[in-house]
Specification:
The chain has 271 residues and is an all-alpha fold. 62% of the residues lie in helices and 0% in strands. The protein has helices at 2-8, 11-32, 35-39, 48-78, 91-116, 121-126, 145-152, 154-164, 171-188, 203-206, 211-220, 231-236, 243-255. It starts with a helix and ends in a 16-residue tail after the last helix. The relative contact order is 0.12. The protein binds zinc ion (ZN) (2 copies). One zinc ion is lined by residues 113, 117, 126, 130, 217.
Length: 271
């Protein structure tokens, strides 16, 4: 038995085991040293009642929207509405296709998101996601199934549009696009800010959304509508005025020795 286990611990397996041990040790060390605590955006924001709702929402939404979007993709591919460019290509073509997706989705999301904040759409569709005023990873999938279909529907829409204009994307691009929405969703709802202070001070980086940026959308509602970038919010003046100052404060708090955890401000809509 022991010999079998030992025989299995070779090459790739051993490397995976080392990687997992490394990540686990990092997480334990992070918790023990207060690394995560110091980076929590809303230190006292967790509520069991909301977390239970998020679990329910996640299960309902992922199953419902998974079925609808899966069927839609199948239909579009079977009927030739979505096709891929099979020709070999260079990395910069893949990069250009990905960049097109990234900024087009960001535009689509920003304007639909602002529309979803208007009644009666807010109450019927978007309110579900805003039950969470202090996001965590599960908040990503705690959305009304309809909203999940609207957001997730962008990928088939994008692939169909490019097929129709005779510029079908490459399979490699699709492989990069598909996980992007979920990865970005988890990133903005993480509840922890890991980026350095200089991030918001230079235009080379400040256009890219931070976790604090979207966290504040959940806390204050009427600001920071962007999904991948802050560009549309800066253009339309919908960035929360205190966002940059609060981001700085968060960075200061974690660099201060044994900084006290600040009590959260009451959740309120700002004028
Ligand atoms: Zn919203
Ligand atoms: Zn959100």
């Amino acid at each position: 038995m022991l010999r079998q286990v030992w025989a299995g611990l070779t090459g790739e397996n051993l490397l995976n085991l080392w990687l997992m041990a490394f990540i686990a040790a990092g997480l334990i060390a992070g918790i023990a040293t207060g690394f995560f605590k110091a980076r929590k955006i809303q230190p006292n924001g967790f509520k069991w009642k909301i977390f239970r709702w998020e679990i329910f929402g996640a299960v309902v939404t992922t199953s419902l929207s998974g079925v609808v979007l899966g069927a839609l993709n199948k239909y579009l591919t079977a009927h030739g509405w979505v096709a891929f460019n099979p020709a070999p290509t260079s990395w910069w073509v893949i990069a250009a296709e990905y960049v097109a997706y990234f900024f087009l989705f960001d535009t689509y999301f920003y304007w639909l998101h602002r529309w979803m904040h208007k009644e009666p759409v807010y109450t019927w569709v978007h309110k579900w996601h805003h039950k969470s005023t202090s996001p965590n990873l599960l908040t990503t999938v705690s959305v009304n199934p309809l909203e999940s279909i609207i957001n997730g529907g962008f990928v088939p829409l994008f692939m169909t549009a490019f097929t129709v204009i005779a510029l079908p994307i490459h399979k490699e691009t699709a492989a990069l696009i598909l996980p992007t929405n979920i990865v970005m969703g988890l990133y903005v709802h993480a509840g922890y800010e890991f980026l350095p202070r200089w991030w918001n001070r230079t235009w080379a980086t400040k256009w890219f959304i931070t976790t604090t940026f979207h966290d504040q959308h959940h806390k204050y509602f009427n600001y920071n509508f962007g999904g991948y970038t802050t560009i549309w919010d800066y253009i339309c003046g919908t960035t929360r005025k205190k966002y940059e100052a609060d981001f700085d404060k968060l960075c200061e708090r974690r660099s201060a020795p044994r900084a006290p955890v600040v009590a959260p401000e009451p959740v309120a809509q700002e004028a």
